[in-house]
Amino acid sequence: MSQNLEYIVKSFNITEHVLKERKEVGSYVESLASLIVDRFYDYFLLNPDFSKLINSSELPRLKRMRAEFIVSLFNDPFDEKLLDKISQAYNDSPIKVNPYIIASVFEITTQTIVDIASVNHQLQKHLKVILKFLHIAEFVTQANFANNNGQSSVVESKNNLIGALEALFAMLSIHREKHLFLINAWENDSLKRPYSAKAPSGDASSCKFNETLSGVKALFLDMPEFDLDIDVIDEWHRNYHDSVNSLLSAIDKSASKEEQGELIQNVKKISENLFEYINKPFEQTSSLTFLTVNAGMRFIQKYSRILYEAKFIPFGKPEKLLEFVDSLVKDSLKNSLSWAVESYDVSREKPNAINSVTEEITLSSMTIYIGVNLKALPYKAFIFDVIHIFLEILKITIINKEKEYALTVMADKAETANRSKDVFLANMSHELRTPLNAIIGFSQILQVRPEIPENMRPYIEKISIAGNNLLNLVNTILDFAKLEAGKIFFRPKMTFLSDIVKEVSILTSQLAEAKNISLTLPSDISLALFIDAQLIKQVLINILSNAIKFTSNNGKVALSVAFDQANNEYVMSITDNGVGMSGESISKLFTPFVQIDNHLQSASKGTGLGLVIAKRIVEDLHGGRIWVDSELGVGSSFHLAIPVMLDLAQVQVLDSKKSDSARLLIVEDSEEYVNILVDKLNQNFNITVTNSINKAKELLEENAYDKVILDFFLIDGIGSEVLNFMENQGLDTPVYIISAEDDYKIVEHLQESSNIVGVFNKKNAALVCDVISATVNA
């Protein structure tokens, strides 16, 4: 992408969605192009300054060219070639263009499309993107004109144009104001010495009009499109002041009213000629539209920058805020709309009706009124509407800024409250756990002391039970609070599930034995998952404890593990044949502080937070799933799904010292066990090691191996997937299955495969290595 195209894409926010809409416009714009162009030239030729630039014989060709331009703008690929076509479009025109004509052409085109869109549903739907690409076309055209005419930038070119128009308008306002004062004063017979400064003097050189004219003379020399001769304006202006001087002299000499009347008519005639000549560029409202809108945009840009750069806006201090808004309006009007604004007022009081434009900004602490008085200008109604729109935008901006301020204050308060909560939780953790641990500890000591009377022991046992229950409640509430605050420590790493199961077994087996419940846990599962061992252990203990609690004496509770190939996740299931739950109870199961009533619960009430915490740990922290299947009176099955981590897959190649060594693929995720195998087999094999089912498939597809050692459980699946892959690909390679599980458990999960030559327990590593090495040596 070229720099020009990249700049436009960024500046005009050209996204994939915008380009898709542009393509939709391109599908129908050709059918509307002729209508748009016809309407465009109807508007364009209404301006006498523009109409005289076009020869009627050229009009059909110009219409065809403009229609083709519009079609290309929405149908050609959006690339550098299109930008070149846009920038060169004016070269084929018989009209000598300039920034003013370019701006007017695109403004009239915009107005034309907006008019047609009022009755055309397609244009209405895509009006925003259509105007965006018209703005791009104007930008590119102005930039090319500026480059070809030695101007530094589009901004400078446009600013010169705006400056010239504003200067004309300023001169028009100066002359109109002083002339009207002169006429009114003469008619009221109040034009007497000493003459008011509001009246024109007899000296043209002292007039502000003359000062403005001298300052912009160079601008007009570079803008022939105005068809204005500055020398003519200068001459007529001097003639006007000479005629005023003659009038004032006649008044000083007490000339008759008839003689003064003839002189005042001469003043009026010269004034009308001067006014009409200066007003020429403003005879069409398009010129004034361009001037007003561009000045208004500078107004918006100015106050937006002030608001953006303000380090602190005093929304909480009304008087300071009023001063800030007053300064904001003053600085924004300067060098933007000052040519049209006589005065302004920012106050807490509603302005008088004399203000031309008023705006009311209602904030939480006060209401601010902005009043703007306009100068005596032609087309004042149009300027009134435009300035009202810009003040409305200012109002919305300030209100939104106050909302941002309020949100910031709320965030600060929330952060302060959060810090206070953290301190409270820390204190609560210490202040509650310390005495509870003392109560529990001393009650346990008292239970084994021989001097304690037998009739006291039941009470001490109840103290111990109550203390443990209260400690569990405190720990649960603290865990929930930490999860809610995002303060829980989450440290996932590759962890063998067998290690977690062993700890869970120690903590839950006593609960099961007390009720003579058969508790079945995986004995020695060789599965490593990317998890936080402490948190998953907490989840398993919670669910297993609940299963035992809500299962009657002599019941059954089991934990099993399976791989869900469709969802690429391992599922741990805790199943019991306890009281079960209804569908209504299941819907409330993971709601904080809600417990499901049943006859086995009365002995020990909880917080109703255990399963909520489990859900947060599994789903929010591990990105997994947790759900339950249950039937009232039959039992329940809780399922925890932990997704595999494909980005943890690794591949390592270890070459043997012997050049003719056989090639061995080891698919194993225990780094310690891999080291054992490599140490014993590297002398006879060139070894490739991976910990991933999917990587193993890739390696088998790309390379030929003499043997494969395959662990049953891996980080992203189970070994049978590799066996199935080999069968489907027609790969005939001896596979040695290894696992920490009992052989019969593995065989239950393995489908029949001609590649399997043996199933070994991982405890017999030496036997595995001897068998594999013997087959090579033989």
Describe the overall structure.
This protein is an alpha/beta fold. It has five domains: 3-151, Globins (Globin-like, Orthogonal Bundle), CATH 1.10.490; 159-282; 285-404; 493-643, Heat Shock Protein 90; 646-777, Rossmann fold, CATH 3.40.50.2300. 58% of the residues lie in helices and 13% in strands. It contains 26 helices and 18 strands. The strands form five sheets. A six-stranded mixed β-sheet has the order 11-13-12-14-17-18, sandwiched between helices. A five-stranded mixed β-sheet has the order 5-7-8-10-9. The longest helix has 69 residues, at 380-448. The two termini are 64 Å apart.
Give the topology.
Blueprint: H1 3-11, H2 16-26, H3 29-44, H4 48-51, H5 59-75, H6 80-88, H7 99-117, H8 121-125, H9 127-148, H10 154-187, H11 208-221, H12 230-252, H13 257-278, H14 285-309, H15 318-333, E1 341-347, E2 357-362, E3 367-374, H16 380-448, H17 457-485, E4 493-496, H18 497-514, E5 518-520, E6 528-531, H19 533-549, E7 556-564, E8 569-576, H20 583-588, H21 610-621, E9 625-631, E10 635-643, E11 651-654, E12 662-667, H22 671-681, E13 685-690, H23 693-702, E14 707-711, E15 713-714, E16 717-718, H24 720-729, E17 735-739, H25 743-749, E18 756-761, H26 765-777
Parallel strand pairs: 5-7, 12-13, 12-14, 14-17, 17-18
Antiparallel strand pairs: 1-3, 2-3, 4-6, 7-8, 8-10, 9-10, 11-13, 15-16
